[in-house]
Amino acid sequence: MTKTLLIIHHTPSPHTQEMFEAVLAGAIDPEIEGVQVIRRPALVVSPVEMLQADGYLLGTPANLGYISGALKHAFDCAYYQLLDTTRGRPFGVYLHGNEGTEGAERGLDAITTGLGWVQAAQTVVVSGKPSKDDVEACWNLGATVAAALME
Where do the NADPH-dependent FMN reductase-like domain residues begin and end (predicted)? Predict the structure, then answer.
């Protein structure tokens, strides 16, 4: 039975695009079998797509110390439909920030804890231009969350 991994992202800059591409590459690695990867910009993802997914990767810049308005909007539209229905599903997060990301990390922690989601990999936080190690960490994040769905 195929599982679905939904990547919900807000990718407004070259740095977040580079991180997104690395996460996606890890998630679709040929060694990961039985996992369909769907990617949706945060402003267009539907609550139905979020309900149907078996796991999630969330990517956002930290804007003014918080998650992007786009990702917040996605959760505002779907939170109560997801509540209780998606409890226990694995997720991972990647964040890009030029200043502080603590507020964004706290915000996503509050949302995912409220939903009862289970963090499958450590959050990847990048400041400035992603280094080779940052890109590798993003790849590993995508692969780890996707592999969690194979079990």
Answer: 50-127
